[in-house]
Amino acid sequence: MKSSTRKSPVRRILAAGLGLTLMGGMSLVAVAPAQADAYRAAMNIDPSTIPANGETNEAGWYSTAGSGESSPFTGTRKGLELHGQSAVGQSFAPGESLDASTLLSQIVAGGLGWATAGGPAVDMRIVIDARSVESGQEPRTVTLTPVESVPGTNIVQATDQWTADASIARDDNDTDADFQAGEPAPLADFLSADGVNSISGFALAGTTPGQSSVVGSATWPTTSYGTVYVNDYTFLAPLKAGTVKVRGKAAIGQTLTAEVSGWPEGAKLSYEWVRGQEYSGGPIEGATAKTYKITDEDAFRMISVSVTGSLEGYADSRVLSDRTPLVPAPAKSIAPAPAADSDKLASFLKDKGVQKQKPTAVGLPAGKLDATKEHTADVVWTALDSHVDVYLYSTPTKVGSFPVVDGKAQITLTSEVLSTLEGGSHTLVITGQTSGEVQAVALEIEPAPAAAPDTATVEPAAVEGPQLADTGSALTFPVTAGVILLLAGAALFLTRRRMAQHS
């Protein structure tokens, strides 16, 4: 093979990385400026979900049994036990293969490796799409394998020696400089070769026939929709999960409790409370106890709790409770009317882009409302409000504040309120206490009938003792008798006087 005078890719990477580090403390990942930031993700692969002896050209996890082995692996409480030279791997879906330069960047950043928990060493395999001499420079699948692996932890370095199971074109302009099958070379040189197109998967394989090796963990990068993830895989059966329910009233100042059941004995449970809306949400900072007291920040949010169970020898299991109803905001005092009169109301509604609804749209009668009776309007309310304020126009009359329950405000129009209004056209105006959302309903009111004049005879109040008419009747006899006696006396006086004169 003709030797190459090109500077080693490893030296170029390390030199560039050192320079960047000295200039600004940047990670060596920055040597690939086109590379998006990678997200680190801890992921457990349940051994029972890995197909046994699956085809390696299918996307996803697969396994192949080694020579003389009836099955490729067994799931244990320490990890994935590979039988003999069996292999377990992950193939990437079309369109989600990894660029060789991206993998090289992640290797420099420590994003490729594996660890065993027992038995002989295990090899990692990098499956690449490359041009090789054997295929007449046409792309084909080539597998890279490390020259030396050790039991325990293996962190791949760009300078490590690897081999390919087929030749790879090193340089499009120098086909004599191809990597030959089985020829050791730094991994960085393989990944920087012009003949390497992309990475199509990774695998872990046992190295010793007739002996089993336990893989505890592995790390390699993947891509999804252009985003790079560095996945820290474990291979354990998950802990059997129990259940969790939230107990308590969803109201500010109230305390919620996570009620758990069905978790295995000895499992350690941790809690994380979550607040959110219909399609969004996140953990509540510091809320990691079994109970949570609802605060003002939770208004118009739903609360749930996540419980994670941990037990040695199993992958953690996590369950999320159902969410509470929306936490209502405290009711405020009814605000001043939004407009001073009907003319200003028309301008207000126009500015808000509000059209008056028909009364039937809110469950009110189609005709005139009888002011002597109570009526109820059911107004659908989708804005984030716990309460609404309600007014009646022409002259604004405060009807009151009403709660919003399950997306509906139930508004009561009492006869006391309606009877204060003149008959004719009126407008029911509803405003959200928090959102400022406005709705309006056109109403016709039949006034209460006027009271009839009172023509009944007023009876005199009863008093104790004789009535005036009775008293007059009772005095007639004494007065008459007195007059007669007076006249008799006068006649007697005159008679005696004449007799005195004649004598």
Description:
The chain is of the alpha+beta class and 503 residues long. The protein is built from six helices and 29 strands. It has helices at 9-24, 100-108, 187-192, 342-352, 415-418, 468-502; strands spanning 38-44, 60-64, 73-75, 80-83, 87-91, 98-99, 113-118, 122-131, 139-146, 153-155, 161-164, 185-186, 196-206, 212-224, 227-234, 243-247, 255-261, 268-276, 281-283, 291-293, 302-310, 317-320, 369-370, 375-380, 387-393, 397-405, 408-413, 424-432, 438-446. The strands form five sheets. Strands 2, 5, 6, 8, 9, 11, 12 and 13 form an eight-stranded antiparallel beta sheet that branches. The longest helix is centred in the C-terminal third of the chain and has 35 residues, at 468-502. The protein is elongated, with a radius of gyration of 48 Å. The model is unreliable at 1-36 and 456-479 (pLDDT under 50).
Mean pLDDT, nearest integer?
Answer: 83
Write down how many β-strands occur, each being a DSSP E stretch of 2 or more residues.
29
- Structure annotation, total helices: 6
Rounded to the nearest angstrom, the distance between the terminal CA atoms is: 202 Å
Largest sheet: 8 strands, antiparallel
Strand content: 35-45%
Rg is 48 Å
Secondary structure category: alpha+beta
Q: Outline the low-pLDDT stretches.
A: 1-36, 456-479
Identify the overall geometry: elongated
User: Which bin fits the share of residues in helices?
Assistant: 10-25%
